[in-house]
Amino acid sequence: MSEQDELDAWGDALKEQADAESSEGDASAEDDPWADALNEQAKAESKTSVSDKPDAKAAEFEELNFTNGNGHRVDLDVLLDIPVTLQLEIGRTKVPIRSLLSYTQGSVIEMDRLAGEPLDLLVNGTLIAHGEVVVVNDKFGVRLTDVISPQERIKKLR
Predict the structure, then answer these.
(1) Cβ(90)–Cβ(119) below 8 Å
(2) pLDDT, tens digit, for every residue of 33-71?
(3) Residue 27, CB half-sphere, CA atoms under 13 Å: how many?
(4) Residue 11: which of 52, 43, 54, 51 has the closest Cα?
(5) CA dihedral in degrees (41, 47, 49, 55; nearest 10)?
(6) Inter-residue contact 14 to 22 (CB < 8 Å)
(7) 86: exposed, middle or buried (C-beta count within 10 Å: 0-12, 13-18, 19+)?
(8) Residue 38 in contact with residue 14, Cβ under 8 Å?
(9) Interval 13-38: pLDDT, tens
(10) What are the angstrom distances between the C-alpha of 42 and each of 13, 19, 46?
(11) Which one of 19, 78, 79, 122 is at 20 to 30 Å from 3 when CA atoms are compared?
(12) What is the pTM of this model?
């Protein structure tokens, strides 16, 4: 079936649909502006042929560069100032609300990790690295022991 035949078939189908909708009753056509719009579209499409339409061309995009429309270089350092949330996770556990309400000062909550296992470093909720707790000048810190590669992070998203 040629492209012209396909367009003609679509035009005929739309015309039949429009005729069927208009034969349902003049009152419903007056109340339904969509029916009028579909009828107009069907008429316009049935009159248009393939030769009236311009040839389609593939979209062409400019090469990506780091300048704005005025030719000034875009400062990518702006991205470096965007704040992100870092989280260190030592473990997780699920407890019923009854247990949670019974916790008092000195209560011990058992986590799902063993002592000595590395912590998880999450950036905006995404695992980025594993590390261990260190103390430097009486302050806690984290020494990164394993950084997750971008390929591994993408695999975990799927």
Answers:
(1) yes
(2) 777 777 777 777 666 555 555 666 777 777 766 666 666
(3) 0
(4) 43
(5) -50
(6) no
(7) exposed
(8) yes
(9) 778 877 776 665 554 445 677 777 77
(10) 9, 10, 6
(11) 19
(12) 0.46
Here the tokens at position 55 are 């040839």
Count of other CB atoms within 10 angstroms of residue 18: 20
Distance CA 127, CA 156 (A): 9
Give yes or no for a contact between 144 and 127, defined as CB atoms under 8 angstroms apart. Answer: no
Sheet holding 126-136, edge to edge: 86-89, 119-123, 126-136, 139-147
Picking from 6, 1, 75, the residue whose alpha carbon sits closest to that of residue 45 is 6
Q: Tally the C-alpha atoms within 13 A of residue 136's C-alpha that lie toward its C-beta.
A: 6
Query: What is the distance between the alpha carbons of residues 20 and 42, in angstroms, rounded to a whole number?
Result: 13
Is 98:125 a contact under the CB 8 Å cutoff? Answer: no
Residues 19, 12 contacting (CB under 8 angstroms): no
The closest alpha carbon to 144, from 126, 123, 120, 111, belongs to 120
